[in-house]
Every structure is written in C-alpha cells, then in structure tokens.
Amino acid sequence: MRDKLEYQKDGWYFAQCGRDLETLVAEELQDMQVQQVKTVRAGVHFQAEQEVFYRVNYCSRIASRILAPLVTFRCASENDLYKKGYNFEWEKILDTAHTFAIVSHVSNSAITHSQYAALKLKDAIADRFRAKYGKRPSVDRENPHILLHLNVQDNRAIISLDASGGPLYRRGYRMQGGEAPMQETLAAAIIRLSGWEGKLLLYDPMCGSGTLLAEALLHACHIPSCFRRQYFGFERLPDYDLTLWRKVKKNSDSLICEIPDDLIAGSDIEPSVLKMASANLSLITSGEKVKLIQCDFRQLPELKNYCIVCNLPYGVRQGEKEALKLLYKEFGDFLKR
Ligand SMILES: C[S@@+](CC[C@H](N)C(=O)[O-])C[C@H]1O[C@@H](n2cnc3c(N)ncnc32)[C@H](O)[C@@H]1O
Q: Which Pfam families match (predicted)?
C-alpha cells in the first residue's frame, strides 16, 4: 500500500459505546493493556498494538463496536467527500465479488444529511471500481463483507472499518429474549459497576431471559465476550495476522475457569422467560451451574450476603407506570429485609 492507513500510522482505534459508559469502557481497555485512552461522547479513542487491538475486539464486554480508522480528511463539501472516496485504494480491502455497506453520521458540517453522505461515498467507491475493472461491488446492508463507518464532524471526515464485524452485544448466546431483554453490553456494565468479583453469591430476582446472569457468568469464568463469534471485521484489514489472532484467542481462552455450583442464581415470576434463560445459559460454559427458579421476588427467602443485580420491569403506558410504583416500593422493601 502506498499510503499507510490511518490506524497503521500510530495505532489509534475507536471503541463505540452507549452514552455514560465511556469511563467504564476506558477502564476496561486499560485493564487490557491499551497504551492510551481518550474518552469522548459515546466512545473511547485508544492506542494499542495489533495484539491488544485483537484482544479488545474479542474480550471487551462493554464497548458496542471497535472501529479501525482508514482515512481522515477535511470534508467541507460533497465534492471533498466524493474525491477522497474515489481516490482511496479500496481494492486493498474490497473487490468486485464482495459486498459493502456504509453507516454514516454527520454533525456540525457543511454536509448536513447522513444518508446523503453515505450515498455520495457509495457512489465514489462504485465509480472507482467501475473505472478500474468495468464492474463494482454491490451494497448489502444486512450482511456486508465489509462495513464502513463514515463520521463527518466539524467538516472533518473519518472513514473507518467496523473491526468487530457487527455489534459486540451480539454475543451469540441469546437465541431467545423476553419482552424487554437487556442489551448484553449494558448488563456487562452493570456487573462491572456492581464491583462483583465472584466471591459473594450473585442473585437476580427478576432475571427474565437471563442477560445479567449470563454476563455475570462470562465475567466469573473469564469467558471472552465474543467466544461464540465466528468472524471479526479486522480479518478484512490488509495487515490481518492470522497467527497473531490465533495466539490472542488461545491466550484469552486459556484463562477460562469453572465456578462453584450456585454461585450465580436467579428467579422470575414468569415460567416462559425462565425457559429462555435456561436455553441461553446452556450455550455458555458452566451455564448449567446457574440455578433458576420460578418465584415472585416477594416470596423469596432473605438473601443475606448476596450481590443482588436486577433489571426491573419498566412501563411505557401511564397505567403500567402507576402499577409499577407499588412494585418498585415492594422491591425496595425486599432489599431492606
Ligand atoms: C425488564 S424484564 C427483565 C429482563 C431481563 N434483564 C432480560 O435480559 O431478559 C423484568 C422481569 O421482571 C419479571 N417480574 C415482574 N414482576 C415480578 C415479580 N413480582 N417477581 C419476579 N419477577 C417479576 C418479569 O417477568 C420480567 O421478566
């Protein structure tokens, strides 16, 4: 490659995350030995060696996606975007037999519409391939070979490759979810915030399809969050190092350990969601050790010296909100017992 890709210059990547989770993600990345972190709204810029970058993709529990910046440039007009998009050497990561998609976000810039920006970049990529090879790669929004992120802020554009290959909350263990399943990355954030380190027993008295229990299990057993993921976007990068990735995976997997029976348990009033929780947990190592019972939390015996985590029902309609006031009060009483 004539020019280095942006991330190859100095090893800076970007971890996207939910709002207010930035500090937790930064702490998690530091635990994984990244060199530097800079938190911004809904994400963390971090600098890492390739090995650590692979580990972050495989093991981060709270980040929702890892981006590898390919190119940054001044983008004060649609013409700037088209020109840079046309001149970039896309053939290093894409060919006419494979598909791509673009997610775009613009703010405080001359280009004001995200979808229009994505369309302009898509045209530039397609025109470049057509001019060079007489045909172009197709767009596939559902399952693209490469997913690009275009971010234009203050007339500065960054085009990145989605190095995770799809959102990291898709762990691969949730085959079924109840009515209001929690996002896995948020559940992982709650486990981290609780400070639970697998010493106390952990209990979720309204466990639903078991997301908090599953994330607690991954944490306690040191199971990488992407242990079931078959493919990562970083495999499409031109300097992808299969030997290094295998080493990272092997080292991370070697830390997986067993937990004592009943360290993690939960209950729910609704039998159908407990079946889902059981099915989901069965896809994780030691999942069979998580005890699940059908019970109204008001009937539970006293839980002394437990770490209690819970995602309470939340109503949207006014009637539901009224009914929930009592439930929240009763839950408060339950915690004080
Ligand atoms: C927001 S959902 C929990 C979702 C869960 N975190 C997940 O990821 O699937 C709230 C759960 O509380 C349960 N629930 C409501 N009232 C309950 C009660 N009195 N006792 C026990 N569980 C209750 C519901 O059945 C529902 O599964």
A: RlmL_1st, THUMP, UPF0020
